[in-house]
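Our consortium's second objective concerns turning raw sequence data into structural hypotheses that experimental partners can test. To show how far this objective has progressed, the report includes one record in full. It was chosen at random from the queue rather than selected for favorable results. The single chain below, 340 residues long, was entered without modification.
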Amino acid sequence: MPRRNSGPRLRYFDRRGCFYICWTESGRSRERSTGTANREQAEVALAEFIHIRVRKSGPKEPSHVLITDILADYAEERGSEVAASWRIAAAIKGLVPFWQAKTVAEITRETCRVFLAERGRSAGTVRRELGVLRAAINHGHREGRLTRAVAVHLPDSPEPRDRRLKRTEAAALLRASLRESRVRFYLPLFILIGLYTGQRKEAILSLRWPQIDLDNARIDFNSAGRRRTNKRRSRIPIPKKLLSHLKRARLRGIELGFVLNDNGARIRDIKRGFASACRRAGLDDVTPHVLRHTCATWLMQRGVRLWDAAGFLAMTPETLERVYGHHHPDFLRTAADALS
């Protein structure tokens, strides 16, 4: 016989040094910190928690809905629908310690500013986490749980990173990757595909051989059945220098398998092996995404037309011009010539 649900109750955790509200919901044990080790304050938090939860169903005022409930509903209902559900989970993990026991009405410009200060992470990371909070609140409003949405104030967008590899640095990275015994069978190919196609890390790691037409020298980074998202992927001709490397790699691969694999298994992440190769090559502040920056920069430096380069990279022309346009030899040339 299942245990009787005794409702929300207080429990003190010695290891955490404060009281927690514990309850059972849909057969699952849940808990929420009161943020205090004082029994009287914890009982007040418990009373407010119970008051909020027993109100009638239907849309509620933001002051009557806990932020953690909104985040939990969003993760449960939207997590399986997005391409990278782990990003939602990671953002919520960063949000909960600060926002737990707070209601949606407590989200203001000032509390968002305090969260940025206390989070101890970069403005870009905090911006992504608060973006998930904003999406969760909008989702709750659309689903009829909130009477109105509440504004979430995000930090300003950080300046785009301008780190890219010189050709000598790219050659040093390739040589270093060949000397990394644990990853030398797939890391060099990852670097070559990144440099010659400018695709994102996930697009390269998920690439299978049926997506590559070696006879016609075409490659489609859109896998069958993949949901189309803002992270667009290209269908492009294979550069000649990359084609020979892919043909050699095909001799080692299996027909339906992943292009990058470890004894047939998909490579889940390249971060550690890539970082080790960078250290061996003496490169600082280089991540796998720098390969995409490098490819875009090289295309601009070689004078490729903006529209062609944007299509090749699966990037909007506006973004390409804003971030990389100053590398193009014709950048503002007409204006300079007019003054000559």
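The partners drew two points from this record. The longest helix spans residues 123-142. DSSP finds 14 helices and eight strands in the chain. Both points have been shared with the crystallography group to help prioritize constructs.
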